[in-house]
Amino acid sequence: MKRFSVVAALLLAGCASSAPPLLLPPDRIEAYCSDKEPRGTAVASVLGSVGDRIDTSVAYPGDDVLRVDVQQNSGIIGHWKSQLLYMPFTAKALGVSGNYIDVTQVIIDNVLSGNVSRLIYVTVVTPQGPKKIILRAFDTQNVCVEGERLE
């Protein structure tokens, strides 16, 4: 009887917990990649490499400025209907309940902002409406050329 109770408890615990959502390629990508086709998996990988805090080292420059930046330096603007990203500290800072932020847009240029990182510009859903934030990503691959790292 003891074994049955242990097995039943383990099964219930397994059913109660769910796996974190997978990071999927954007639903739509605006590419500024000079004859290269961007990889949605690279975009998801860069998004998944962010640190769990909003980067305040620079002010959000605005979508128009960022669009010109990705056009000049190559890059992408990725759009999702909804992409959950596990970021408990950032969720709390934004007033979002739970441990996930809901990403709807990301702007990634192919320029590093340090030896091993880059800034990415993210739109997230909050209780107050969409909010634009800056995150530091540690995946330094070129979002336009699969397998190529930025230097």
Characteristic terms for this protein:
4 helices; 5-stranded antiparallel sheet; globular; single chain; 151 residues; alpha+beta
Q: How are the SSEs placed, and which strands pair?
A:
Blueprint: H1 2-16, E1 28-32, H2 40-48, H3 63-73, E2 75-86, H4 88-94, E3 100-109, E4 118-126, E5 129-137
Antiparallel strand pairs: 1-2, 2-3, 3-4, 4-5
Q: What is the distance, rounded to the nearest whole angstrom, between the alpha carbons of the first and last residues?
A: 62 Å
- In spatial order, strands of the major sheet run 1-2-3-4-5
How big is the Rg? 18 Å
Mean pLDDT value: 87
- The helix content, as a percent range, equals 25-40%
Main beta sheet strand tally, sense and closure: 5 strands, antiparallel
Total count of domains: 1
Task: Summarize this entry quickly.
This protein is 28% helix and 30% strand. With 151 residues, the chain is of the alpha+beta class.
Overview of this protein structure:
Mean pLDDT is 87; it is low at 4-17. The protein is an alpha+beta fold and 151 residues long. A hairpin with a 2-residue loop joins strand 4 (118-126) and strand 5 (129-137). Strands 1-2-3-4-5 form a five-stranded antiparallel sheet, sandwiched between helices. Helices cover 28% and strands 30% of the residues. It starts with a helix and ends in a 14-residue tail after the last strand. The chain is globular and about 40 Å long. It has one domain (20-137). The chain contains four helices and five strands; from the N terminus they run H-E-H-H-E-H-E-E-E.
